[in-house]
Design brief:
The chain has 6 helices and 13 strands. The protein has about 260 residues and is an alpha/beta fold. Strands 1, 2, 3, 4, 5, 6, 7, 8, 9, 10, 11, 12 and 13 form a 13-stranded mixed sheet that branches. The protein is globular and about 55 Å long.
Length: about 260
Amino acid sequence: MKVSYVEWPNGLMPNSPEFNAIKEQVHLASPDILITNEMPFGRWVSSFPAFDIDLAIESVALHEKGLVALTSLNVPLIISSRPVRSGDRLANEAFALQGDHYTFLHHKHFFPAHVGWYEAEWFNTGIAGFELAQLSGISIGVLLCTELMFNEHARAYGRAGADLIIVPRASGPQVDRWKIACSMAAYVSGSYVVTSNHSGEVPGNNIFGGVGFAFAPGGEQIGQTSVEQTLMSFDLDRNLSAAHKKLYPCYVSETIRGS
């Protein structure tokens, strides 16, 4: 099963020349699964320090159009995220597209609150939980960006049988810490862990770092994107994931003994 991951430019618009170039690139790669970056279309709303209902509505509407654009890529399974209304704020909703069939996957639970990433002002969690999805014959878990930093969820996905943990993200230029988090998530879960990112400038003199990457079960990096090669792919081997789940530290169970 061929899995592709990307770095896409910040501010991407559906059906723009940039998206049309992406469409051609994806067609040439012909993946079975495509993993996009986090909320890939339009302005990164949480670069603004205060919630703005008009900007929120604009972003929701743009990502609705983005669903049509993603469907036009003709990939059997696409996993991405988008903003949806949730009470008086937004929720960051991970989803799967299979043709024009939409499947809810997960709402983001952990929100940063610093310059360029004022997500705590913009988002809440409308639907709680970290649940596996069975899609295209494999078990998939989603961690949205910052959630990757909380290793207990990767471990839980692994123990539940995840073949693949997907991490759409929108992170800055300090890539090393994200690679460490990805490696550890793969190591403790025995799952493939794959992430796609934004690239380019953000309002407020911030910069998205680009660089999508993939880690195999066991924690070894198997590839990454670059400015020159913004889409990369690998072949997922379910047997490799199953084998690593029997190895240290994946097999270790928590044991609490009384005094």
